[in-house]
Amino acid sequence: MKHFENQNLATRQGQYRHRRVLSAGLLVLAAAVLSACGEKAEKKSGQALASVNGEEITVLQLNEELARVNPQMAQQEAARKQLLEALIDRQLLQSEAAKEKIDRDPKVVQAIERAKATIVAQAYLQKRVGTVARPTKAEVQAYYNQNPQFFSNRKQFDMRELVLTTTDVTDEVKRVIDGAKSLEEVAAWLDEHKVKYGRAQLSRSTTELPPELSARLQAMPKGQLFIIREGARSMLISINEIKDAPVTLEQASGQIEQFLFNKKNKEAAEAAVKQLRSTAKIEYMNQPAAGAAPATAATPAATADKTAAPEDVTARGVAGLK
Fold first, then answer.
1. In what order do the strands lie in the sheet with 198-205?
2. 17-41 confidence digits (pLDDT tens)
3. Which of 64, 125, 214, 280 has its CA 20 to 30 A from that of 292?
4. What is the number of other CB atoms lying within 10 angstroms of the CB of residue 94?
């Protein structure tokens, strides 16, 4: 039996598809925080689209939100309706917050200052970095060729799993798993000893899993049992089948191009910050004494969350190809 700590098999499919909708919601919420500073709002300009207890929602406001979300042409009408409703919700929340003087709460003031600083810093970076060139076809082709595990040699893992609470994975259960020849043998023992568990089937590809985990799964014989722990739950998994699932350059080009474009932007931003740090006078004060434990030590759970972060998916290449 193999034991993998803090690996995340949670599906990441759909993250890319929902990113813009999520971004819309986050931007509206962020704007709501900044707008709730309690200062009397300036008179809004532009044609009114709605009135919320006397406060107008204007075309200008909606267009600003649309520009940030930048929906595809076919989705613009739906996005307009969704964003208008979000703006109405924001206005309702902002008005109620003002009545209760929530904008004067020290925690809210601190959050507003943090959001403001982040937005200003991002605006500066955008101005400093400028327009990054889109990846060329040659660059897209090179990335495709250099990462066959994501594309031409892509594998699909069909697996079955038993999901248990981690506290139920006792030493006795581990011994049963170590001695079992199949998932069903373990399930029968759990039934006999009234240990609760759930069943599931899952399918993941090498584009969705961390490279190290993909390599280890490919090296396992069919039917081998292994455990993945994710905080309070543990999954006992058996590989049912490993299939070839190649993706052509034509199918992958769009996502590769976007990934490389994002990577270029990130590298340009990091270079700009590095240059600023090289010329700045930075002094660290009130540091903990040598040998003292850090105030917030990294926890295994935090490590697991980091493993599951979308950034990790992006760093590995292109996820979600089917």
1. 2-5, 225-230, 233-244, 155-165, 198-205
2. 444 444 444 444 444 444 444 444 4
3. 280
4. 22
